[in-house]
Amino acid sequence: MRRKISILGSTGSIGRQALEVIEKLTDKFEIISLAGGSNIDLLNEQIAKFKPKYAYASKPELIEGAKYLPLEEICADKTNDIILVAVSGRIGLKPTITAINNGIDIALANKETLVMAGDIVIPLAKEKGVNIIPVDSEHCAIHQCIKDIAQVEKLIITASGGPFLHKTVEDMKNATVEQTLAHPRWNMGRKITVDSATLMNKGLEVIEAHHLFGMNYDKIDVVVHPQSIVHSAIEYVDGSVIAQLGLPSMHIPIQYAITYPERYEGIKSKSFSFSEIARLDFEKPDWNKFKALKIAYDSGRKGGSVPVCMNAANEEAVFAFLEGKIKLFDIINTVEKMLETHQYIEKPSLEDIFSIDNEVRTKTKELFSHLLF
Ligand code: MG
Fold it and tell me: According to the model, what pLDDT value does residue 189 have?
């Protein structure tokens, strides 16, 4: 029996790599639906090659070779065994909840789903008996290391440190979009690459880990590891540390998530050689230079609606940076400013979450139009 899969965000970085994995495992997977965004040419190429029944695009009339289905209906289609949620941003949240409500397992590459609504999504998945398998390399590593979460003392999340790891604050202040997008280790989409440069990405991952593994923030550490060979680790109550290692490639965690609990050769990374790698370095994160990390920890600890505000302000600020409207450091200044005036809600409903998200985005954009820094 082939596993029936749909991919949300098939034309993005994760979606494209997932299809490369599936191409190597055609006897294991049947693609039910592919959902792309505005890159309709690529989506139509993917449809011609992988022959899904259904497809989604922002302009349905341009889809060739598959029947159009809205995102919500793709996620409500119980033919699916698993859905890979690889869209970026808040649009991942609603379809993920629909899929969970329909008892479909999730391979989750979308951070916002848990950052915005982890307190809703995780209990719902438990109630419906749905597995959420993380695609993010760090959480995938932790998922591979954990046997019994009750025996885990600490999660240790590694961070490459991004392009500004050993640069000065001044360098960061004057960073161009091009310098910011030149990530030394990982080839990813633009939004996440900017987040990796400010370390907000790591902050979002800490919040994600808190929800996925039910771990207190005091028991989640971040360590900078520039080679990105150790993808993350856990420490057991007896002090034993188990880490997952590998060459940095997103194919491997994607493949792990969509084939779990099986493992196949698929896209096999080059055989691992400790002697070729020779050394692994670790250092503490510079909390002063990478303020985003502290902001994310604080927001996560406060919980409720605070991470929703942080995430919305950050995402809008990243877009403004990519458009050349603000400087790199202004991203974090914006997030701080939005958090200062945020009206805290302890247990936001989904409606609350979406309305806070919209409100913060509107306010953030207003701030840029007046440039009130
Ligand atoms: Mg990651």
Answer: 81
- Mean pLDDT estimate for the chain: 95
Q: Separation of 255 CA from ligand 1 center, angstroms? A: 15
**Distance from the CA of 139 to the center of ligand 1, in angstroms?**
8
Question: pLDDT value at position 195?
Answer: 95
pLDDT, mean of residues 281-293? 96
Tell me the two tokens of residue 203: 């902050």
What are the tens digits of pLDDT across the range 343-361? Answer: 999 999 999 999 999 999 9
CA pair distance 280, 273, nearest whole angstrom = 12
Residue 205 Cα, ligand 1 centroid: separation in angstroms?
A: 7
Q: What confidence tens digit (pLDDT) does each residue in 186-218 have?
A: 777 888 899 999 999 999 999 999 999 999 999
Sheet with 230-236, strands from edge to edge, namely: 220-224, 152-159, 230-236, 241-245
Largest CA distance in the chain: 59
What confidence tens digit (pLDDT) does each residue in 49-99 have?
999 999 999 999 999 999 999 999 999 999 999 999 999 888 899 999 999
User: How many whole angstroms from 238 Cα to the centroid of ligand 1?
Assistant: 27
Cα 201 to ligand 1 centre (Å) = 7
